[in-house]
Amino acid sequence: MIYLPIAVAVLANVLYHVASKSIAAKQNAFMGLVVNYATALIASAILFLLTPHEKISIEAARSNWACVLMGLSITGVEAAFVMIYRAGGELSTAALIVNILIALAMLVVGGIFYHEQISAQKIIGATLCMAGVIMLSLRR
Description:
Elements: H1 3-22, H2 29-50, H3 56-61, H4 65-86, H5 94-113, H6 120-137
């Protein structure tokens, strides 16, 4: 069951980065985000209606600070990628570098705040990731 959501996440991320890089350079980046979120709102509302749920008021009442933080975080991610691509970031490496750095940060966050075990294997993997970021960041 995990393979389908992984495939959807990969496809959605590829489309996300292609779209981020393709937003018109003359358009205000934040107007682009307004259109993005209007589209996401409509798509999410349709998917909400098509999936099993309780009354809208009950489902809305279940929302907490994490939903707001996620919305703010998504805005930051999207604005940052538009800026990265407008600054000349390459589609082939920008997302890879950012995601490796995220993985490294999550290793620390998981260890400190969620008491996840940081094994020798994870440290070796993190070291290889850091070497990868350095290699990808070197100018040819």
